[in-house]
Input
Amino acid sequence: MIDSRAVIHETAEIAENVTIGPYAIIGENAKIGEGCNISAHAVIGKNAIVGKNNRIFQFASVGEEPIDHSFHGEFSQLILGDNNIIRECATIHAGTAKEDGTTRIGNNNLIMNYVHIGHDCQVGNKVTLVNNAALAGHVRVDDFATIGVNSGVHQFCRIGAYSFIAHMALITQDVPPYLMVASSPTSPCGINIEGLKRAKFSTQEIRAIREAYKIIYRQGLRLVDAIEKLKVMQKEISAIERFVTLLENSKRGIIR
Output
């Protein structure tokens, strides 16, 4: 199941039931988990750890060196979880010494054509990155988020869980969980109701999330005062805790 024309470094570890197509390159000390399918001409970088049952399509570059002026060959790697789909020509860069040297991608993510994930990013589970979406370095994307076609996310931003970023949006501040973000101009435009319904959120939870959105965006409160209101709400609706956690830990401020 490994094509004879593939180039696999002698230190790489390949598990059972792995398919590797012609002219794919597997780098030094890379580890490929069971059931992976790596198509022709794909590249797996040095030190990359690839979990189980991932599909990596042709010409994708997964775990290569970061594009960063401070990088001078120190330890750098990508850790990729299980059951991810990485489509044609996507690029995912390994980490830098500015953090712990590791870019991390979770499980069950869909990473479409020409997506770029920069160094030191942390992407959760069941995230969808649509064609040509780009994450600069140090971006964090929480579970179930969707980032639309041709969108860009500034370095050090955080995208909250279950949020939906419209096509061609430019994100320069943190996006709280559950939000819909419009692209022209880039701005919050309500709650991702359809996404929450698909994720089986209850009517009560959705109602509380809507109220939390109004507290943050419609009542003219200072952020510190909005957080105090949300802390009271989270005692009854645990889903509100995601708002509190992101708002309290935001370093770039939130999109408003």
